[in-house]
Amino acid sequence: MAQAKKVATYAITIFVLYTIITSPARAADLVQIGFQGISDAAQGVGQFMTELIN
Q1: How distant, in Å, are the alpha carbons of 14, 29, 45, 51 from that of 11?
Q2: What is the pLDDT of residue 2?
Q3: Cα 22 to chain centroid, rounded
């Protein structure tokens, strides 16, 4: 089981590096989308807490 996890980690790492090297603009877009999603989620939680207090 541990060996399978190690192989999967290596495969994912190689895939991410390949994607960044072959298409850096697309990789940057995906990272920006991810951070935008995290930001939107944090804002949603903040608004919920504000409304909960009021």
Answers
A1: 5, 22, 34, 44
A2: 82
A3: 19
Q: Is the pLDDT of residue 1 over 90?
A: no
pTM beyond 0.70: no
39: three-class secondary structure by DSSP: helix
Whose CA is closest to 20, among 10, 9, 28, 32? 28
Q: Specify the DSSP class assigned to residue 1.
A: -
The encoded tokens of residue 46 equal: 């903040």
14 neighbors 6 (Cβ within 8 angstroms): no
Per-residue pLDDT of 18-49, as tens digits, reads 988 999 898 889 889 999 999 999 999 999 99
Question: In the chain, which ranges are continuous DSSP H helix?
Answer: 2-22, 24-53
Q: Specify the residue for token string 């999603």.
A: 37
